[in-house]
Specification:
The protein has 213 residues and is mainly alpha-helical. Helices cover 77% and strands 0% of the residues.
């Protein structure tokens, strides 16, 4: 294999093992055994195990965010629909037999010092994901896109934590229903054009304003 192919192979092997066993429990010897390379080959690409973890998290971040964006854009054409489609993306992830919970939460949990490079890499992924939700909320012209994005993010994180324990897809559907209620309260759910639906949207908007006053 070429040098770039070996590096990719090492990263994919490390990602799989970190997901299965955790970052601390997965030793370098196991990674090189599974990858079928010499220890010197691994250290030719990564100076330390921490460097390997950071590179793996960077790869995971790119793959996860790109996959969600592609999935969402294929599912819905409007920003509100895309916010809801992010939960459909969660459901597909929870259905994957390899799902073991959020790898970034796991990385942060095993590297608890907020100054630790691994913790910072995990936190960066969370900030970038939140920024994507805010991007969709801005496009949907919500009055408070940062708040909407933060609430959508909390639903994502909660659903992922519950799914890790239950190993079911239902938390994604529950979170989607909660998100739909949240967005409806903002008057942004598209409904058939009729006097009744307009009244329902106006009632929902007034209730939301009253609850925040």
């Amino acid at each position: 294999m070429r040098r770039s192919e070996i590096r990719d192979h090492l990263l994919e092997t490390a990602l799989r093992l970190f997901n299965q066993h955790g970052y601390t429990a997965t030793g370098v010897d196991l990674i090189i055994a599974e990858a079928g390379v010499a220890k010197t080959t691994l250290y030719r690409h990564f100076d330390t195990k921490e460097d390997l973890i950071l590179a793996a998290l960077e790869r995971q971040d790119e793959q996860a965010r790109d996959a969600m964006r592609v999935f969402v854009e294929q599912r819905a054409s409007d920003p509100v629909g895309r916010l809801l489609a992010t939960f459909d993306c969660l459901e597909a992830w929870f259905r994957d037999a390899r799902f073991r919970g959020c790898p970034f939460v796991s990385a942060a949990g095993e590297h608890k010092d907020t100054a630790n490079p691994v913790f910072r890499a995990a936190a960066l992924h969370k900030r970038l994901t939140l920024a994507y939700f805010e991007e969709l909320a801005h496009a949907a012209r919500f009055a408070e896109p940062k708040r909407i994005a933060a609430e959508i993010n909390v639903l994502h994180e909660g659903a992922t934590a519950v799914a890790q324990m239950t190993r079911t897809t239902e938390p994604a559907r529950q979170a989607r229903r909660m998100a739909a209620q949240l967005l409806a309260a903002e008057g942004q759910i598209v409904e058939p054009s009729s006097p009744a639906s307009s009244t329902r949207r106006e009632d929902a908007r007034q209730r939301a304003q009253a609850s925040r006053s």
